[in-house]
Amino acid sequence: MNRLKIPQIHNYIHWLGNVGYRQFGCSFSYDPKTYALLDDFVTMVIEVDRDLLQQVKKVLKPYGLTPEQAIVDFLNFCVNPATREKAISRLLQWKNEQE
């Protein structure tokens, strides 16, 4: 297993402050100084099978992306209010395709 350390995810706590779960919404905010302090504490580590990681790198290389950056971009896609509904739709579609 390889471990991917995701680059710093800015305003991660802001994402958590605007995430809805089922029918329940959640919203809160902090001042810019607090956001900056919290950003230093957020680290994400994902364990990935070595062979799978090599496959992912090969797929992403033509796009100039690393696996770490692709993960950050995907998380942004999922939580951005402008793309959140599309992300939910795609995630449900992919889930159904797996069943």
Characteristic key phrases:
99 residues, mainly alpha, two-stranded antiparallel ribbon, 5 helices, extended
Helices and strands: which structural class?
Answer: mainly alpha
Rg calculated over all Cα atoms:
16 Å
The helicity comes to 40-55%
Number of strands: 2
Mean pLDDT comes to 76
Question: Please, how many helices?
Answer: 5
Q: Number of domains in the coordinates?
A: 1
Strand order of the largest sheet: 1-2
Which residue ranges are poorly predicted, with pLDDT under 50 across at least 5 consecutive positions? Answer: none
Largest sheet: 2 strands, antiparallel
The percent range for strand residues is 5-15%
Roughly how many Å apart are the termini? 26 Å
**SSE series:** EHHEHHH
Shape: extended
Concise synopsis of the structure shown:
By secondary structure, this protein is mainly alpha-helical.
Task: List strands and helices in order, with pairings.
Blueprint: E1 2-5, H1 12-17, H2 32-39, E2 45-48, H3 50-60, H4 67-79, H5 84-98
How would you characterize the overall build of this protein?
The protein is mainly alpha-helical. The protein has one domain. The chain has helices at residues 12-17, 32-39, 50-60, 67-79, 84-98, and strands at 2-5, 45-48. The protein has a two-stranded antiparallel ribbon. The model has no long low-confidence stretch (mean pLDDT 76).
